[in-house]
Amino acid sequence: MFQTYDDPGGPTLGRKHLPRLRKALKAAGLDGFIVPHEDEWQNEYVPPAYDRLAWTTGFTGSAGAAVVMADEAAVFVDGRYTLQVRAQVDNDLFAYRDLVDGGVPAYIRERGKQGQRIGYDPKLHSPDSLDRLRAAADGAGVILVPVERNPVDEIWDDRPPIPMAKVVPQQEAYTGENASSKRQRLGDGIAKEGADAVVITSPASIAWLFNVRGGDVARTPLPLGEAVLHKDGTADLFLADEKVSPQLREWLGNQVAIKPSEELQPTLRRLSGKKVKLDPSTASAWYFEELKAAGAEVIRGQDPVVLPRACKNAAEVEGSHKAHQRDGAAISKFLHWLATDGQTGKVQEIEACQKLEAFRTETGALKDLSFDSISGAGPNGAIVHYRVTKKTNRKLARGSLFLIDSGGQYEDGTTDITRTVAIGRASKEMKDRFTRVLKGHIALSRVRFPKGTTGHQLDALARMSLWDAGLDYDHGTGHGVGSYLGVHEGPHRIAKFVNTQPLEPGMIVSNEPGYYKTGAYGIRIENLQVVSPAADIEGGERPMLGFETLTLAPIARDLIVKQLLTKEEIAWLNTYHARVWAKIGPQLDGDAKAWLESATKPI
Fold first, then answer.
1. S-S: 527 plus which of 116, 238, 283, 551, CB 3.0-4.6 Å?
2. Share of the chain above pLDDT 70, in %
3. CA–CA separation, 282 vs 280, rounded Å?
4. Would you report the helix, strand and coil content of the chain in percent, each value rounded to 5?
């Protein structure tokens, strides 16, 4: 089994480690220290050896930060983690603060005192975030102090091992383009921008650019390393020696110089006098400072890999279709199991996770989960990013809702799907809320939109039916998804927050509106969909982009209030279910096939 159910966090960590960190800060002449969730590669999912925030506070979510002062401390999380942080972090030690509304800069501005010295690790902060911190510090008279050695690392005596997984080739049958072509194409773009090279620090960008995958990050096949891509298409790739095999050297060819990680800093210094592009949203402030010290001219700009990686080519889209058909069969078997054995009221959240993972494993193609499954029964389903542990494990009680958000990593694609099902009989309120979520999901599936439209402009479609009832949800509606890469991928998204990246053909994005009643239940319906090329509409004046749904699994018909759906919404649902039956039905047999046929009948 890939997923484990021990809680690596919890209040004990903060109680144990906070006094030690304060002692270390005092010895270093610091009045405080900023502990972000991010690691040196700005990863969302951080390997245990780099999860300094969890070590300091006990909080294990995928976004957050902490500020530790001599006499007070605070932990910052967004709307996804307001319940989790209360369960994992001792409020007597850490004040709970909002990560988005002001965040750490606001805290420093409000709580900082004249002359205080607050430390930070420049390898863990982007230059943009550091600029905001400096502005806040200046306003409060606080002095921000960069540290060469992170004080958390200095006292972390039981630190997990640094990940050293082998880096392996990703075949062209899956990537649709060889690495040499990618490097040459992007190198030409660098030259047109007037730059000599670009420093690439994102592990996902490195994996895509060199057609490789790794195993340094759980649930995501990423190699932790860095690269310098030159305008002529040659590159320097920095990896720990333990990760490199003769097969990898042969795969990359003589246009890529594989160098040990220790050579990164000397290589950056040799870029003196060169024009070097660097992405301030993914590269830490340390890179900017190193290049500036070397005498390079730094050009701030988006990582050139980001957009081509997001716009999947034909091979990647076809791979995603295959992965979802395979995954859809596993999901359908699991939903059949939930509809039968899972209705007893005795099944627990962990058992459900294990059952779903077993069905995915039976495909023979599963490489990993794409994230730890969110298996939320009853009130646990209202915790948006809930992670079941042995301590929180609940029964799927009759008369409740069960929410399962899960995904798989396959060589040909990454999946992510959420389904909500009734255990026993659902209440009238549950069905009403479910149907409103479904209406938002359908609206975002059916929409046609002109070139240049961003996800921000579409977000309200998924919320309108909830808004009509005075309801909403506090998370984004859609995130990008990689091709056997991260389950969360930019630069596009669908959310209330402004995003300037237009949706373009080939982009894969989730569609996942929800509703959460704290202490009672949670509802979310999630499919992945790919942006389809612009096409004419009869009688229209300009071509319109749209979405093609990738995910194939039934949506709970017994939770739908048909009277709340329009004719167009009913037609969409029936068409979708007919497609599920056509694609998934032939992969099933026996009782599971019979159940799927019934579950996908028209309403």
1. 551
2. 100
3. 6
4. 40, 20, 40
